[in-house]
Amino acid sequence: MKHLLSLAVTTLAATLLFASATSAQTTEASAAEAAPTAAAPAEERGFLGLRFDVKVVAGEPIRALDVTALMPQGPAATAGLEVGDRIVQRGGVDFAFEDEQAAHGAFDDTRIGEEIALTVVRGDETVALTIRAGAPPQTTAQQGQAASQQAAVQASMRRLATAIQGGTPLELRRTDAGVLEASVGGNMLDLRAIDLLRPSEEIRQAMDQLPAGEVLTIAMRPGPENRSVDLEIVEPPE
Hints:
Elements: H1 2-17, E1 50-53, E2 65-70, H2 75-79, E3 86-90, E4 93-94, H3 100-104, E5 115-122, E6 125-132, H4 140-166, E7 170-174, E8 180-184, E9 187-189, H5 191-195, H6 201-208, E10 215-222, E11 229-234
Antiparallel strand pairs: 1-2, 2-3, 3-4, 3-5, 5-6, 7-8, 7-10, 8-9, 10-11
Helix pairs in contact: 1-4
C-alpha cells in the first residue's frame, strides 16, 4: 500500500510541476517590414530564452538584434544561437523597426510551439536557424506554490494510508458556501489526494450532488494485493 501511495504522489507532483507558467523572464521579440502582428496572450506566448540589445542611429530603422545573453539549454541556445550573433531576418524578411520599443517587442507575437526561422550574422558568416518556442519557465513564486501543493497532497496521502490501514472511513461534506471538504478521523485532506484514489463514477456523482450541510461517508479497504484501494459508499442508518 505504501508503494502504491508513494507512486500516486509522485505522479501528481510531476503534473503540478509542469503546470503552465504565465510570464517570461527574458526580453523577447516580433516583426519586421510587414504590418505589426498582435502580441500573443501572456498564457500562450512562446519563450525563446534570449536577451538582445539594439543600436539606434537617428533617422535610420533598426535592422539588427544583437544577442547579449542566452538561457543555458533554452530554445534559442538549443537551436544554435550564440552570444554575439546579430539577428537580421525573421522568416526571410529583413528587420526594419522604426524605434527601440518596436525592436524589443520583436517576438511578442510568438506562441508556444511555434517555429521561428531566423537569419543570423556571425562574424563573416550568415547562418540560418530555426527556434521552436517553448513555454516560459516557472517563476520562483510559481515553483513555491507547486512545492506547497505537492506537500499538501503528500500529507493527505499519508493520512489516507493510515486511515485505510486502520479502517477509518473517508468523510466528504459540502459547506453552506458550496465548498466540498474531505477529512479522515477529523483531519482535513487536500481534495487532489481523493482523485488519486480513483473513485468510481457513482462516487464522483454522489460527491458532485452532495447537498450543503450533508456528509457522504466512504469506506476504504485495501484492494487485491494492496495494489489499489476499494471505495464504497456507506449508507446512512434509516
